[in-house]
Amino acid sequence: MANEERGDCENIPLTEDSAENIRNLVNCYKNVLVCGVKGVGKITNTVQAVRDRPNVYYVGNPVDYEGKKRPGSYDKYIAYILSLKNDISIVEDMEALFSVSKEIILIIDEIYGRSDAELARINRVLDMPNIRVIQIVGCMKYMVGLIEKIDAIVELHLDAAFMIEKELGKAICDILGKK
């Protein structure tokens, strides 16, 4: 990545513009976790953050962080994602990502309800040097086992965003993520 794209990674100012916040974090960090309560625009702001970037891929999840099906239908949800960025590549099989050699940005929507095999694929993708991952979760506690590979955590709110220290993120997963 070009140095001019990276900007000042030590002092990223977070504002009420969530898309810009995510864009700045993705420019500085390989694996970014975006979390926040329902309705803060996690997916909308994330896709908007990378709208001008090439090679953006999306891995969906038919359920949300509570295990509820997407409103309307999963197909309508995918249509919404495509309306935000019509050249986004929808990934049907994560195995295909392991043969990608070009630099890509991968948005992974939700962790809840994923099988052990899916979690293992996500874990592997987080290690791939050519793939920048934006992991979206409604509740950070489901990142148990994956939080170690996250470089930056941002929590979105309706009118603000703030960074969560990685050690606090690990503690949240350790305490709340126990079954």
Which secondary structure elements does this structure contain, and how are they paired or packed?
Blueprint: H1 3-6, H2 18-28, E1 31-36, H3 42-49, E2 56-59, H4 74-84, E3 89-90, E4 104-109, H5 116-127, E5 131-137, E6 152-156, E7 161-164, H6 166-176
Parallel strand pairs: 1-5, 1-6, 2-3, 2-4, 4-5
Antiparallel strand pairs: 6-7
Helix pairs in contact: 2-3
N- and C-termini, Cα separation: 40 Å
Radius of gyration: 15 Å
**Helical segment count:** 6
Order of helices and strands: HHEHEHEEHEEEH
Q: Major beta sheet, specifics? A: 7 strands, mixed
Strand content: 15-25%
Poorly predicted segments: none
Mean pLDDT: 90
Q: Strand order, biggest sheet?
A: 3-2-4-5-1-6-7
In total, the number of strands is 7
Shape: globular
Helix content: 25-40%
Structural class: alpha/beta
